[in-house]
Amino acid sequence: MNILSIETSCDETAIAVLEAHGDISEHRFAILANTLLSQADKHAEFGGVYPTLAKREHARNLTPLLEKTLKDAFLFNVREQDISETQREEIQALLHREPEMYEMFMRLMERIEKPDIDVIAVTEGPGLAPALWVGVNFAKALSLLWDIPIIPINHMEGHIVASLLSEEIRLGHVVFPALALLISGGHTELVLIKNWMDYELIGSTRDDAVGEAFDKVARMLDLGYPGGPAISKLSQEARARNLKSRYSLPRPMLQSDDCDFSFSGLKTAVLYTLNDIDVLNDDIKREFAQEFEDAVVEILIKKTKKALDQTEAKTLILGGGVSANTEIRRAFRELFKEQYPDHLLYIPEAKLSTDNAVMIAVAGFLRASASSEPAYREPIAQGNLKL
Ligand code: KG4
Ligand code: ZN
């Protein structure tokens, strides 16, 4: 089964083709193409993601990115196409809010053959609604023209399965209940996975997401957007030099009796401490980055341990952009080695931790293979979609 996947929930336009063989207990995946265009530079001046800009960029990027994806996957065959008036009208109606995308899309479709794709997986939420709509409508236009069914995907399920792409792991071999710690720019969640597609939220942030805190603190330290990688780099430098931080930050909700998180106090504490500093030099930034990361790690580990103990889950899956963080990965590996030697820990490859389309294709494979109900239906963009 060849799966074409489309991801436009935030500021990354991503398309992939995954070749999948077998079923969920005995599968083999080959990533035929994995393309991504980041808009991070364009959003940097706003210090965060600006929804209308994201939508416009996705609309511009999707068609050229599809062309590149099909070429990378060796599925790009030039042959003039006869597209009926009715089809043109239907697609035009679908893309009427994006006239520029419609023109680009039709120009490509008129000159290439339908590729060897069996199913289209597209992110329908959660994320920025205008950005999601562009991806969803693009998928619907392709589905209409090529007569290929669509499987709508929850972006967070994509982050869950991103760690299960390795040669040795099979989706069907995951021992339930499993626990997922999803840490991204929009989410900080502990999710109990009772079975595939049967999820229960057992903890989440009451205010900022952890990635959002990384981004806001990075902005205060003049490190640009997105802030996660910049903070991570500075704190790695601090650790390599054995710098001791002169600053101490709080660990909000560390002692609370639930599995919830709070990160806005941490960000405010950084702001107040910075107010007392006259000149912000590189070493001060390194010390802040390290102390901030230490606080985040301590909170994430404490709450995850609480959730593991409460749920008796024997498997932990990390996912989301923040799970690309070197120190967080190291700390969780160490925790499992020392305190949970009988448990399994799955961490995505760093480049599949942040948003990408491969994870959306894997979730598409899961839905196509593991569900007794037909997974195909019309996608509907939903900014607040829950797992
Ligand atoms: O999952 P993701 O790519 O997009 C969302 O679904 O939100 O996560 C993006 C978030 C951003 O806040 C970014 O700063 C953070 O992940 N991030 C990191 C690192 N790489 C990305 N945070 C900490 N350390 C990193 N290395
Ligand atoms: Zn994400």
Could you please describe the fold and organization of this structure?
With 387 residues, this protein is an alpha/beta fold. The protein folds into two domains: 2-159 and 353-370, Nucleotidyltransferase, domain 5 (2-Layer Sandwich), CATH 3.30.420; 173-347, 2-Layer Sandwich (Nucleotidyltransferase, domain 5). It has helices spanning 40-44, 51-72, 85-94, 99-109, 129-146, 155-161, 210-220, 227-240, 264-275, 282-311, 326-339, 350-353, 358-370, and strands spanning 2-7, 12-23, 26-38, 119-125, 150-154, 178-183, 188-195, 198-204, 315-319, 344-346. The mean pLDDT is 96. Bound molecules: 5'-O-[(R)-(carboxyoxy)(hydroxy)phosphoryl]adenosine and zinc ion (ZN). 5'-O-[(R)-(carboxyoxy)(hydroxy)phosphoryl]adenosine binds at residues 10, 184-186, 211, 214-215, 226-229, 232, 320-322, 324-325, 354-355.
